Structures are given as C-alpha cells and as structure tokens.
C-alpha cells in the first residue's frame, strides 16, 4: 500500500474495480481486432484515467510491448515522473515477470487483475514476485475481477488463431 | 542455449565476452555523463552489433527505460521480429526482474553480465528467474565479466550523487 496518509493516496476504492476492469477489457477487445493477444491495461489515479493500452507486440516488433508496460510508460509520460506512487494499474490478465517487475520499478502500490496467467503468471500462478520481502517497494494485488470475461476473450482468440493456422 | 544446431545459432564465443562487455561499458559511461544510473547493454548476433543502449529513466520519464529493455526493443526493431532467438545480450549489471522477464519474452538464449545487482538482481542474487523450469524458454547466463570495472562505475556514481545531495 501507499505509505502516505490515505487522503494523499488516491487509490480507487474496491467498488470501482469492475468499472476500471471494463475499461481495460475494451482495450483487450481492441487488441484482438488488431490481431494481438487480447490483454488490456489502464493506469488510474483516484477517478482519473491516466493511460490505457493493449498489447502491441506484433505491430511494434517489440517483445516488451505488453499492455501493462505500454500503460505504465504512457502514464509516466503523462505524469512527468517515472514514479507512479499513487496510481493503480488494472489489467485483464495476471502480469508476467517482466510486467510485475515494471510495476515494482514504477512503485505502483496497487495492481488489480482479471484472469490468472497459466503460462507466465508472476503474481500467484507460477512465482510470487510481489511477495518477496527484500524489494524496496511493496505492491498490493487483487486478482479475479471479471476473470471469466477476461479469460474468455483470451481463450476465444487462441481457438480462432489455431483455426486459421490449420 | 539455442535449440538449433550450432552452425545456425551464431552466439558469440566466450573469448569475445570481454570485448562486448567493453562496448556495454562505453554505454554505461555515457549514462553517467547524462546523470542516469550507469548501466549499459548491447545485443549482438555473432559478430554483429544489433543494438546498444544505456539507462534513460530520467530523460524519458519512463520507469521501464533500463539499458536491457531499450537494447532489446532497438534490436527487435532492427531485426523486424520480436523474437531474438539467436542473439546474445551483454549488460554491465545483473538484470532486475523486469529485464530478466523481458529477456525471457524476447527468447534471448544467452545473457552475459558484469557486476551483481545487490538491490534487485533476478538471475542469482535475489531470485533465480531463469532457473524456474516451467517457462516456455530457457536462458543461459554468465556473470562476473569485467565485474570490478562495471561495479566501480556504479559505486562512483552513487558516491558522487550523495555528495551532491549533501
């Protein structure tokens, strides 16, 4: 959690988690339409949407162009500071090691995600990167918000892709 | 290691590790001159230098602008493919979780680094991200190449910075 007093740390309340996840889901749908893996992310500060992004790995020929990294970069640019100490990140899929690491580096205090990442999850599924006690920053995380909808989008995308490959 | 036969997998031989680390060190020195944490990285394919970069977190207001991430992005752009399956990454400091995760995602088969990362090392110092057996890619890693020179540059930078802060 943000170490500052709560009135100075405008993290969105849990009643707003589904709202922000729906915004991230719109991004994920835009990714699918572009032929990219349908994952979307938003960075918010209180009620303010700082940045939204979806995976663009193929479009940009960029192995790091995951939704979370693109959203963090855009938010930090908008904010004029690489430290996003009072922002929350919402993402439709559990972050991978790269994205969980980027969240730690950006000092984001809260991550809310949708579906578990069975292949590469670094919050609870494969490793628990945020649970390691010796980083200089700690991250609160909540998973399973609109998990069914987030996961179905991914499953449909991969079924469709396999069909095209056959 | 690259799964392809050795003649199709042009990783640099160990006799060239110090040469490429010196190129990465030049990048690290350029970072220090720009007031950024002095870490430099290069991506090579056989004897070809595909990309070189140094930390630019402050300049770009970008928490993800570590040397490795910038070098991987530039190499993938130059290569026209996000998969860097026959490239090696040289970096003056042991990668952090974000950078080690990015290396896995880019399918880089070999990472050679200089100094250990006492604060955030994700190869051997704090966690061993590459050792986890269930990722879909494996990374060979060699540490300690010109470690003294790489580490001294970092120590001098932080001593100097503290002096300015006093």
Task: Describe this structure as you would to a colleague.
- 2 copies of one chain form a homodimer.
- The mean pLDDT of chain A is 94.
- Chain A has 166 residues and is of the alpha/beta class.
- Chain A has helices spanning 17-33, 57-60, 67-79, 97-105, 147-165, and strands at 40-45, 48-54, 88-93, 110-115, 140-142.
- In chain A, helix 1 packs parallel to helix 5 (147-165).
- The longest helix of chain A has 19 residues, at 147-165.
- In chain A, 49% of the residues are buried.
Question: Brief description of this entry?
Answer:
Chain A is an alpha/beta fold and 166 residues long. Chain A has helices at residues 17-33, 57-60, 67-79, 97-105, 147-165, and strands at residues 40-45, 48-54, 88-93, 110-115, 140-142.
**Could you give a short account of the major beta sheet of chain A?**
5 strands, mixed
Strand order across the largest sheet of chain A = 2-1-3-4-5
Share of helix of chain A, binned: 25-40%
Order of helices and strands of chain A: HEEHHEHEEH
Strand content of chain A: 15-25%
Largest interface: A-B, 41 and 41 residues
Which structural class matches the secondary elements of chain A? Answer: alpha/beta
* Count of individual helical segments of chain A: 5
Instruction: Report Rg of chain A.
Output: 15 Å
β-strand number of chain A: 5
- Tertiary shape of chain A: globular
């Amino acid at each position: 959690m943000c170490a500052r007093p709560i009135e100075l740390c405008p993290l969105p309340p849990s009643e707003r988690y589904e709202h922000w996840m729906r915004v991230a889901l719109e991004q994920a749908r835009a990714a699918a339409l572009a032929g990219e893996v349908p994952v979307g992310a938003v960075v918010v500060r209180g009620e303010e949407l700082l940045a939204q992004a979806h995976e663009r790995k193929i479009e940009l020929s960029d192995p790091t162009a995951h939704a979370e990294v693109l959203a963090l970069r855009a938010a930090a640019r908008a904010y004029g500071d690489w430290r996003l100490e009072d922002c929350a990140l919402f993402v439709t899929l559990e972050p991978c090691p790269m994205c969980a690491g980027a969240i730690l580096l950006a000092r984001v205090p809260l991550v809310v995600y949708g579906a578990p990442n069975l292949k590469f999850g670094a919050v609870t599924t494969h490793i628990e990167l945020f649970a390691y006690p010796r980083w200089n920053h700690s991250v609160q995380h909540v998973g399973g918000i609109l998990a069914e909808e987030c996961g179905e989008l991914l499953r449909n995308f991969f079924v469709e892709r396999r069909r095209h490959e056959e």
